[in-house]
Design a protein that fits this description.
Length: 299
């Protein structure tokens, strides 16, 4: 009797969420998903309350293949808990957003990124760190103040940080996004448009935001070959970026063939498993110390 009551409440809540005068047909898969998500959100809360235990940040190199130098490191959040082990960011980031927890966690990520940038400065003073910022942080928190105060606390040059933004949330919240991006620029913080080309409004967003980098989504890189439409799209994006004086980074480069293709198209700054997987700051430090990774200046 009890379980039926729980299922009925679940369906009733679903119906309420989809509006008035409607109904919901109970689906066990939806219910399982809901249960898993609720459990993950509980673990995320617990983790934050225990000094972010279970969270970790990894760094993936972005490489200038002509100069054979690492110019940036992208900061990528990781999370694990006892019940589910490692959980993909594709699953837990939306839950952090939905619960608002992305706001404290996002600040923590920024601080870890700045700390890594400082600890790796000994290899190259011009190394940049990229940090992904969610639209929830832009809309619901004083993210610019947070960024500026963390940078002040550690006394790092403003142009060491690149903020990566995706299109999600841009359309509905046009003004706040444009304001935030303009303020970044006023404060000499760099802006990269992430997953470029995947949304509906890429060109609009390019026109309205003062970006300095474009990151071509890995969906376009994956099927690169002479005949594919993706090659035409990538070469158009590279040409567009050059005209607008933007740096272009290709994401998700996994094979030598993709690398050759991209460099022939004039895209020399690459990120992907071929160039290096995301690893801890300590691993990057060890690779640099052994001379197996060459961080370089970025003009
Ligand atoms: P993203 O910003 O597009 O990050 C690049 C993703 O591609 C990362 O996935 C990275 O591990 C993966 N990747 C890199 N090279 C390759 C490759 O050669 N092949 C393939 N198949 N994948 C590659 P990850 O770490 O799972 O992150 C997924 C997404 O989660 C990120 O996509 C980003 O949107 C979000 N994310 C990660 N960390 C944060 C964070 O701290 N804050 C926010 N707001 N979002 C984050
Ligand atoms: Ca990114
Ligand atoms: Ca991306």
């Amino acid at each position: 009797k009890n379980i039926i009551c729980i299922f009925a409440t679940f369906s009733l809540n679903n119906a309420k969420e989809s509006g008035k005068n409607t109904y919901d047909i109970f689906d066990n898969c939806d219910y399982q998903k809901f249960q898993r998500e609720s459990a993950i959100i509980r673990y995320l809360h617990q983790s934050i309350d225990h000094d972010y235990e279970g969270f970790d940040v990894y760094f993936q190199p972005i490489v200038d293949v002509n100069k054979k130098e690492v110019t940036h490191l992208e900061t990528l959040l990781r999370f694990k808990c006892d019940e589910f082990g490692r959980i993909s960011p594709m699953e837990f980031i939306p839950l952090l957003e939905k619960s608002g927890l992305i706001i404290p966690v996002g600040k923590w990520v920024l601080e870890k990124a700045i700390q890594a940038c400082l600890s790796l400065k000994k290899y190259q003073s011009q190394l940049k760190v990229n940090v992904n910022i969610s639209y929830v942080q832009v809309l619901k928190s004083a993210i610019l103040n947070d960024i500026l105060s963390i940078m002040k606390k550690y006394n790092v040059d403003r142009n060491r940080l690149v903020i990566e933004l995706t299109e999600s949330g841009f359309i509905e919240s046009d003004r706040s996004f444009v304001n935030f991006c303009n303020q970044l620029k006023e404060n000499s913080i760099l802006l990269a448009l992430d997953d470029f080309g995947t949304g509906y409004s890429s060109l609009l967003y390019l026109k309205r935001l003062p970006a300095c980098e474009l990151k071509i989504d890995r969906a376009f890189v994956q099927e690169l070959s002479g005949e594919s439409d993706d090659a035409t799209i990538v070469s158009a994006i590279v040409a567009l970026a050059k005209t607008l004086n933007l740096k272009v980074v290709a994401e998700g480069v996994e094979t030598e063939a993709q690398q050759t293709f991209l460099t022939e198209l004039g895209c020399n700054t690459l990120q992907g498993y071929l160039l290096g997987k995301p690893v801890s700051a300590e691993t990057i430090d060890a690779l640099c110390a052994q001379g197996e990774m060459v961080p370089g200046a970025d003009s």
